[in-house]
Amino acid sequence: MVARRKVAVVGVALSDCGRVDDATPYALHAQAARRALADAGLDRALVDGFASAGLGTLAPVEVAEYLGLRPTWVDSTSVGGSTWEVMAAHAADAIAAGHARAVLLVYGSTARADVRAGRRTGTLSFGTRGPLQFEVPYGHTLIAKYAMAARRHMIEYGTAIEQLAEVAVQARANAALNPEAMFRTPITVDEVLSGPMIADPFTKLHCCVRSDGGAAVLLVAEEYVRDCRTSPVWVLGSGEAVSHAAMSEWPDFTVSPAAVSGRLAFERAGVRPAEIDVAEIYDAFTYMTLVTLEDLGFCGKGEGGAFVEKGRLRVEGGELPVNTDGGGLSAQHPGMRGLFLLVEAVRQLRGECGERQVRRADGSPPRLAVASGTGGWFCSSGTVVLGAG
User: Fold this and answer.
1) Residue 333 CB partners (closer than 8 Å, separation 6+)
2) pLDDT tens for each residue of 355-382
């Protein structure tokens, strides 16, 4: 039997993000990819694996061609926002098994600019085919699905709307420390609650921003780490899970598939949630953060409201800094944001985050991080545990 190789993330980068009116999605893919390779200090000739989703008729073939790559291992898994954690897990397995030596994950989107220019409208539905046909006639939009789940948690466990609002307040506090975040002005719980209603119980600030932007992550086999200019961040364990497509098939609106993917990731990494120093969690809506914290094991089921209201998610003074860049609620959210979680987790473990850098009690950077992505309306989840080199 061939020994499985260790796998490290050695390059991460963002493209220009936020308000980008003069670039195509392909250009953002290329910009992020070049920056990630430069971050690692490796030549693109080493890259023999490529993963991308969300762009082109033949994704990732079209994007690979645009980047001048001819990979011999590819992945086009598309499960919404969790796509990138799932792809990272697949890439790590492929590298460990010797099927690839270096895998590049890339994403780019001009979601905001397209709406602004009239090239598309705001997405309220994923379509009317398949099981969705039984929900669309009733006006059950994407955001309504999340709102319904949040309301169920409030009824079941007494979670207060003020507690959900605290997630947005603390995300903005973290964004205030990030010069690249779209929105950095502090907000209060009252400001969150008094905003325009989008889908009960969510007001505008309970919902993610719409931005442009791209990201890239480069994973390599352990033997190439010595050639890199960066300190390696090791992939310690991962897990993935799917739950449902139709809301009628979701057994419990208060439990996300992160309950499965998180358990698998922690077991495979050989660590406990209590050992994690920083968490990057998909946050298209405030409820996503709260329920994922529960399902990953940072608090008990139904205890998420009490957990988040104590300021625990803040970079400054928080017991478990969460979404340290400001997350999708304040930093950027160009669509399938899961790759941005991995970029931020790696930067935190490498101690490169400046004013928003998380520090352990002894002043050192974090040693362990988790990135957990969510897709659809809690339809899928991918969780990756990372460790500093």
Assistant:
1) 208, 209, 210, 211, 284
2) 999 999 999 999 999 999 999 999 999 9
User: DSSP label at 365?
Assistant: P
Angstrom distance (rounded) from CA 268 to CA 340:
23
CA dist 281 and 328 (Å) reads 9
**Tokens 């609650």 sit on residue:** 193
- Compute φ and ψ for 273, nearest 5 degrees: -55, -35
CA 249 to CA 289: how far, in whole Å?
Answer: 22
Average pLDDT over the chain reads 95
* Helix 161-175 with 286-296: angle, nearest 10 deg: 100
Which residue do the tokens 């936020």 mark? 18
User: CA-to-CA distance for 59 and 67, rounded, in angstroms?
Assistant: 13
Dihedral pair phi/psi, residue 81, rounded to 5° = -65, -25
Amino acid making up residue 10:
V
State yes or no: pLDDT of 261 exceeds 80.
Answer: yes
Report the alpha-carbon distance of residue 2 to residue 267 in Å, rounded: 23
Are 303 and 310 a contacting pair, CB within 8 Å? no
How many CB atoms neighbour CB 10 within 10 A? Answer: 27
Instruction: Kindly state the tokens that stand for 212.
Output: 């442009």
Q: What is the band of 1 on the pLDDT scale with cuts at 50, 70, 90?
A: very low
Judge if pTM exceeds 0.90: yes
Distances, alpha carbon 189 to alpha carbons 144, 184, 244, 303, 332, in Å? 22, 15, 32, 19, 21
- The 10 Å CB-count burial string (b at 16+, else e) for 328-364 is bbbbbbbbbbbbbbbbbbbbbbbeebeebbbeeeeee
